[in-house]
Amino acid sequence: MAEATQPETVASAAMEETSAEPTSEEDEEEEDRFVELTASVDDAEQFTCDEEDCQDVFESDEALEKHIRDIHFEGFEIVDYKDPLTEDTEVHFKRNYDRKISQISLVGFVSRSDSSSSGISGLMNRLDEPETESDDVEEIAMEDAEAMEDPEESKNIVSTISDELAEKIQFSIKNSVIGIVKAINEDTVEEYCDFIDKNYPVDVADWPALKEDIIAASKKGPKIFVKCSRGKITGYKKLDNINIVAFIKQQNETEPKQKVIEGGVKEFTDSDVDFALDDFLKIPAFDDCVIRIEVRKLRTKDMNGRVLVGYTEIPLRDIPSTTIESYYELQKGGLEGLRKISMPSTDAAGHLVLTLSRDESEDDPNITVSNILKEYFLGKAKTFFSINISSEIVYRGQVSFQISVNQNSSSYQQKQGQAFYQKLLTKDGNYPKNENNSAKYNIDCIMSNSLELGVEVRKRSVSPGTNTLSAPNSHKRSSSLSPSQSMITLMSSNRRESTGSNSSLLSINSEYTPKKKKSSNMLDKLNKTIGSYVGSIGEDIYDIVSPTAKPIMKTVPIDKIVSTLYQHKFSNQTIEDKEDISWDTKLEVLSDVKLNSDELNRIYENAIIESIKASENDNWDGTFSKSLSSLMNMINCFVDAKRKDVNLSIAEAFLKAHSISSFSDFLLKKHIETIVKSGTSSENLKTYVETCLKIIESHRSEQNILSTAIMENLKVISTQNTKVTSDIKKHVEISITKIFNSWERDLTKKVKEKSPTSTHNPIEVCRDILNLHIFHETQLGDKVHQEMFQDILDYKTVTGDKYLDLCQEMIKNNLSQNEKKIVLKYVENSPRVKALILVYETFCAFKRIFKNLIPMQKLPQWLFDLYEQFPDLWMDLAIYKAEAQVENLLKHLRENEERFQKEESESSQNNGNLTRQNSVDDITNETLVSFLGIADTCWTFRRELNWPSLDVNLRTGLKLIEDFAKFETRILNLFESIHMKDEEYDVVELSRTIKLLDGLLKRHHTTVEEVSSLHSQIADDDDMNEVDREYFSKKMTTCYEAIQRVKDKAREEILSKMKFYCEGRRPRIKKHIVNKHLVNEEECLMTCIDGELQLMYKYIQRKYHSDVMAALWKVMEEELKLQFEDRKQRNLSKNKPSRFEHYKEALPVIMDVKKGMHDGKVISDLSLDTLSEMYKEVIILTEDSKILMTKVLRLKSQAQKIDFDENGNNPQMKNTSMAVKLAYVTGTDKILVEVTNVHNITPREKKTSSTIQLYVRFSPDRMGTGQVVEHSTVFKDVIRSIIFELEEEPAPVRFEFNIDHLSSNKEFEDGFLIVDLFHVNKAGLKLFIGECVSQVKMNGMLVTELVQISSESEFPSPDIVPGLNYQLHHFQEVYQSEVYLELHRRTDEAAKGLMAKDDKLRKKSFFTKFS
User: Fold this and answer.
1) pTM for the structure as a whole
2) Whole-angstrom Cα distance, residue 846 to residue 257?
3) CB-based contacts of 430-435 (< 8 A; 24+ apart in sequence)
4) What is the pLDDT of residues 775-819, one digit of tens each?
5) Are 991 and 923 in contact (CB under 8 A)?
């Protein structure tokens, strides 16, 4: 089995990049894409033929292919689709496969494989699974399967490897970088093996043996035999404490290249020593190496470490191939790390006798080791690509490997004095620092070469443009620096901007060039020659600008960046913790022989096919074996193409291989992304798309091999080619059409099976398809395919739309164009009704599916256009059905009249307040629920039509309003007829009626909302023209008026029923009033009212409590008023206050009850006007005459106008007035009164002066029934005013009255002083001028404003008792008051006496006597 994993394959490496390749603008814009060949897929069962070797049996590939097809389709049976929601859901699918076929790609047959095992083998696996029922799959005929074959068979043939390409493959392997080595030996061979295992690994099964051969070869090679038998040591006496060592090193280094050999002292005498050194050293491939022999002192207690006694160095080139014994003088001095012995410089260290010889009979391991690997990979190439490997040299082109370095320094860093540099380090010596922006070096050993990258910080910067390239120790410009003319350009004024190299021009591969040694010498000399010039310039610059700190540096071994060779990309190198300091490095091959992109494509194509064949269980995971991967890496190094072209070639190879041999589509995604991003036209991609579209077309069949990977790949393709999206949609719709047709056939067949004689109804079939299949699919969704097609199309929407289009066409072709209006009642079994319901069911099915597809959007207009003639018909059908239901409801009420006589359930307590609880047997509730259910059903039916036409909605809404108003009237009439059968309308029956009417009234709120929504549509439609707006506004007005009429009628009916009920209570109320049973009795008016109120509260809805109770109170108050007025009328003929006593007792109680009901929020309107007015009248009618007299005088006193100016100078006092002094004498309990003047006396007609007289009265007298009367003398010839003190015969008008009889503090124990002014004629007759009244006591107490004096002597003093100006009145308003009128009607003596005086005062003529 080939290895499935490796550190990094060619394809994956080629798709990974850490920094952009700065070769061209096009490359910089290219985004790195990586091909991942490590994805795994599920194992698919492998089918094999019965024959062990089909290829030997059949003469050609075509015959073999036909044989496999015959095996595949033998026994394959296609059956009709069975829907899971229909009655017969059993699917019989017989699978008879007794043989297996191998996963050999069939030319012209489309196959797929993904994580769920698709393609041919995947399909076979599916067919071998146990039988399961499958939903929503379509039939697929054999011709459909054959149509999936690719007619262009030539596209599916593997591209062959030409001889020329085979030679290039061979050349790539033989000149691979694995042969660029100079340091392989038995000490370093493991390091080399690690390098191979990391960069060019081989299959695990092959590696142990191969590694063993490599190690064995590393132990061989050219040798130098070293033998030291004797010597002479001078200057050091302890010869028993020394030994001799030998090793090979380069002249300018201290470390040995390979192992160190040692020998001890066998014996010595004086200075002569016999040594035991006889061994050999491997000859390294490096130049300028010497063999160094040292005599060292061994460790002692006094010294730490060994001490050098003497040494000698012999260049390897001077060592002969024959054995010769020679003398070599020992030199003084030492190497780093070895201390010198302090000896006089004039003393000799001695000499050694050495026998040295060179043996070059064995091949250099640097060549043999790499050749072992090359031969291995050549053999693999022969196996993988079926090519001939020739030992002849086909191409002899020169090959070298070069490292490119680009600095990533910024202008800011340069200003800060940071100087970037790079330097190549080799075992042959280090090259000088190069501070150019770019540099290139030839590589001579991938194991020992390394790159030093660093930054120095300078004190000041020197413009590099001022320097010129000069020879060492010269400031003149060199005219010739051959052989590297490019180096002169590099060191010119533009060296920072140009790309240069201080490396040699050539690097000759060992196998096709002269001897390695000479080649190395020439390379070393050439590099060092160029380096000497660069170094001189560097020294000159260093003399001018010196670093201020230790350089920041990093050493990068070349073997760490070998992967960039076959990845064709740069690797970014940064210094640790210095991310802003970086370089881009890349290894490149320079060769005259290169492969182009097409050749690479053919190689990859074959590599993929062979990898698929080698995979187990026909389940290739997308990876190459280790050996094949390494082989592809070697070949990829020699591709003459940009990285993106290499990636594109690999991608095309994968697509082509996929069309030939099946593997998972998942492995194609990265490659498709590469092709799509390149923007190139790809025939392989077109072929792949066509194949995928055919699969999509049948993705709902049982032969479905559509996978998520296929759809993911199509998504990538669709980003560049939008036509792919439309093609995918088109083929999905084709698939949906097929399954729809299968549903139609199946349902039609079932209809015929159930009723062979029945006529096929396409609308019924369409309804069943919509409900049984499409609805559930759009509701639940095909989650698998929805996710597959995500980001390309909305699978649910596309399939749903296609289903709906097919159903729409089916309905359109079978609907009648001229539907008749329904004129008959609703009959459920009527063919006409059933046909309309069937059409309605299809309409509802469409809407439900649209809700699944576009839940937040409006229904499409085409749906309403399709059914445009049906909304009125459906609405008529709904109303006719509602009418039939109302008839059934009325019939039920008539049959259950006895339930109207049942009492409602007892009231319950809720939070301390009486509440009403509906009975289960409440016939009203049942009626309301039934009727409202019927109405709501019709309105819901209309609303759920969701018809967009305002005209249709207004028309159907108005029809519902009017028709249901008629239904309401019928129900109300039935209730009334049942209630009035006993000719009494009680509170329970009222409650039923109110409940019914209120429920119907509530229903109209819903009606208003329905119509208001239409109103809003009209208002919000800015596009509606004025004609339509006016039309719809009129329609709206008509609807609102109809609704308002119905609502007003319901409200009026409620009030009417309340009034009707209250009028029924009037006779009982009147009876209690007439019988004077108003309050405080067991059977009285208030107990009657309270009983009715309790029943109201128990049965009538809370919100109507106030209205009905107020109505009953109104009836009661009306009756009280009527009876009160009747008694008043009778009282006119015979005044009898006692006839009103029961009113006087009851009215306060009644008013208190009403106030309490208002405070308790039982009634909302507290109107006490009627009761208050009656009560006021009752108080007057029942009051004592003495109190009435007091009240009359109080009214006069309250109406009296008084001015504090006693002289009458107030202009507002225009009427007759008099100045009066009034005081109470505390010592004698008397009232003193004096009239000081009278003003504004109007003479009688035709008179210029007046004769006047004053009468002063005090009420009441001691008897309480009369008044004390005093009068003045007659004053003649008074012209408008008179001041009594200024008369010729002064006679003060002063009077006094005892009030000691008004000592009790009782209510209405009042005292009044009354002054009357009269004209007196010659006959002594009197004519009333005016009167003033002043109250001196109220309820037995002196009024506060009355002046009190201790004795009569204080009375004259105006300061103590000021005069007040009283205006004289006639008190007409008092005479019109109810109190005065009632007093006037009284017949007792006291009332008669007062009334007699007032009658005289009110006369317009003279009278004789006033007493």
Assistant:
1) 0.55
2) 89
3) 431/502, 431/503, 431/527, 431/528, 431/531, 432/502, 432/531, 432/534, 432/535, 432/538, 433/538, 434/500, 434/502, 434/534, 435/464, 435/538
4) 988 888 888 888 888 888 888 889 989 999 999 899 888 887 776
5) no
